[in-house]
Design goal:
heterodimer; A: 128 residues; alpha+beta; Alpha-Beta Plaits; 20% helix; 16% strand; B: alpha+beta; Aldehyde Ferredoxin Oxidoreductase,  A, domain 1; Aldehyde Ferredoxin Oxidoreductase Protein, subunit A, domain 3; 3 domains; six-stranded mixed sheet; four-stranded mixed sheet; 40% helix
Chain lengths: 128, 607
Amino acid sequence: MMKIYPSLCTGCRICELICSLTHEGSIAPKRSRIRIRSNWPEEEKIFLCIACEPKKCIDVCPETALSWNGYLRMDEEKCTGCLLCADACPYGGIQTEVSKRFPFFCDTCAGEFECVKWCPTKAVAKVE
Amino acid sequence: MKSEFNGYAGKILEIDLTQGKVKQTSLGLDLALKYIGGKGLAARWLFDLMPPESDPFGPENILIFATGPLTGTLVPGSGRCIVSCKSPATGYWLDANCGGSFGPEMKMAGFDAIILQGKASQPVMIVIDDENINIRDARDLWGKDTFATHRWIKSHFGEEFRVACIGEAGEKRVRYANIISEARAFGRGGAGAAMGSKNLKAIAIKGRSPITIANPEPFMRICREAFNEMAIHPDSGGGRQKYGTNTILSCMNETGVHPVRNFQKGIFQGRSIVNEEEIREFYVRNKACYGCPIYCSKISEVKEGKYRGAFVEGPEYENIWSFGAQCENTNIPAIIHAEYLCDLYGLDAISAGNVIGFFMECMEKEVLEEPDAGFPLRFGDDEGIIRAIHLIGRREGPGLLWGEGVKRVAQVIGKDSESFAMHVKGLEMPAYDPRGSTGIALAYATSDRGACHLRSWPIGAELLSAEERIDPFSMEFKAEFVKSQQDLFTVINSSVICLFTIFSLSLRHIVQFLHSVTGIESFSSPEEVLTIGERTNNLVRLFNLREGLTRKEDSLPNRFLNEPLKDGPSRGRVVDLETMLREYYFVRGWDEEGRPKPETLKKLKLL
């Protein structure tokens, strides 16, 4: 699971770039599973699935499409794209994008944690 | 076709503000191959589309925002965008560039460049939301400062929009008004005034198209290696992460090139107060541009005293100088406040500090009297600096004249003030005294946009570099050095990434980036890519010659040529420009009047 340290974030968005490159094969920060909100002059905020304990997203899903096994998993057969999970997440950890039918979220890059590897200030970290 | 355009958006947005017409055209592959992007494309368009001898404030001036194939990618420093137009400060070529997120957002909205022509009949703004492009009424925004303009746009259209806008200085055509994006600037040469003359207050962009990479696997590996090299290099990951651009401050002062009192001296006695450690006390957090691991930006804040509340992304080395040593001011909170005001008004802080220092010398030499300014403006007067910025930003009272820049002001007031009007081609000087560096002397004199340290920066090799140090006083090989560095910097400004990557990366890296992003075979050759830089620099030269530039203006202020420096390691030195300039023209393949020879143009496929 991951831990975030927003005070270390410089707003470089390298995490968004490497996340989209890894998952989408192109540079598309708006399709990234981790998001940096930087609204000058406010400080940066980091949004991603931090594997919280309550996991409201799983509870609210009317189709029981979500489950947890190391990270959040979604059954695309069941998901209707209602996005209640994204609304329920208090951490803004579930992303949506108009060109995508389903919500999307951190899958730890199959344990590779690319954003953690690339973050220059260690504002995102892996915790065992 | 799309596959040919990896790294590029593939489209150009053309807007005629007079008619309110918007047109989308394709970026031709030929053009990309010949000029890469950014500065290269802008040079071609400005040369081809603008009628000769256009008024910089006339509707015929063309304002171009352009990115390159590396903009917005994972390449370190890829958050840049250039703006280009005929400069209101010099009347010649201008390209200025800005970090942050504006460039990447423009590309993700689907455009490599935006070409703006004409003049709107009343204040407007352009809102680009992917494919939806609107020219909207901006009368409510006219007169607002740049931060308020950002807030207004983000609250009306959404905080995801990235903005480039002008402040009051641009609206009122201060010849060194800039364009502000968040707290960063398209700084030098008055692009903000050109934008203001078009009645264009702001451009807001939001885009969601992906940027495609031709060869993602090698691309990621090359980027990873570059990140690692930058992180451990003393000139990028080292000092710049800790001090920002001020990492060179005390070194510049010790080597005697940190100009004091409008270039009357080269060592600042206030050094015990103005040095990088002292300035660091004001930093509250780090800030990075899009895609950059170095975070050389520092957010500074004044927390107490009469300048309480001022906060900037900075202050940068140049501005610590322009409102510090240039005006012999040691009050750091005042410097931060001055830069903050420049951001709000949309003023280039380098030129603004120059203008104020020039007036301080006018007062000192009694060329001007107190009533001319309306208040005492003496060297070291921090409150005078702040007052002057307000007057310039609003163009009130004497600020009406001061907004014209030192060249024009000296012409108006006369009385020998031209002998200490510190500018080249009408653009005020940056923070390095060329009497202590032959390289920067030649770089200033031959820069396409006037006195500028970012067309070539020999300071690094002459006074800072730990490896391969070259003699700052020798004239040997300086022409070759400046020429090849100008060509390299133009490649970087065409790619478009941050020039600061060059502290730790080289042409070898740039070529690897270009090739893996675009897949274009000719971009894998360092010689070919450097030739593109040379081609663009020659095209820009042709533009400047067409606009009336002569050899006489490839020069330096009289002070550097005839007044020996009074102190420091360069004491007693003046610049012998003629010798270096002749050599420079020769290595450029230009004739004795500085005109590219036909064979040079043929070789570069410009003829």
